[in-house]
Amino acid sequence: MDMITCRARIGGQAPLYSYRVLVPLDQISPLRRHRVVILHAVTPAGRQPCTRLADVLAPNRWFERYLAMHCGLAARLNLVSRRVEAIILHAIFPEMTARLVPPMLQLDHDPGEASHRISGIDLNAAFDSLAPRIETLMAADLGLCIDNQRRAA
Prior knowledge:
Blueprint: E1 2-10, E2 16-24, E3 39-43, E4 46-52, H1 53-57, H2 65-70, H3 73-92, E5 105-106, E6 114-119, H4 127-130, H5 146-149, E7 151-152
Antiparallel strand pairs: 1-2, 1-6, 2-4, 2-5, 3-4, 6-7
């Protein structure tokens, strides 16, 4: 599965950055595409429709919202997706050392904006398989072999 990792500078004097992992719509199961939030990632090739990692990881029962909220799935899905996102981002951007991705991160240097397309395992509906081992999950478990699979988005 291809993913786009982004580091975007937030305006101001301090070097504040926002980090994201987005998944292009063409990487998502066709049955899910109409159910996810669509965002547009700006890449050198132009604007590309993508979605959040949480929507990709979500189990099928998540899209039955009344059941998901009643079962407390929302909080657990948020935690797992933020942890998986942090693992992916740390593999690409070593300065991202947070256990969960913060809304913004202040750095002591100014590395500039960056966007990379990476490949990993298929994460469609992977919540149920990843959640039980979230505490021990590593980049290699997600199929991230950075040396040969990182390229400009």
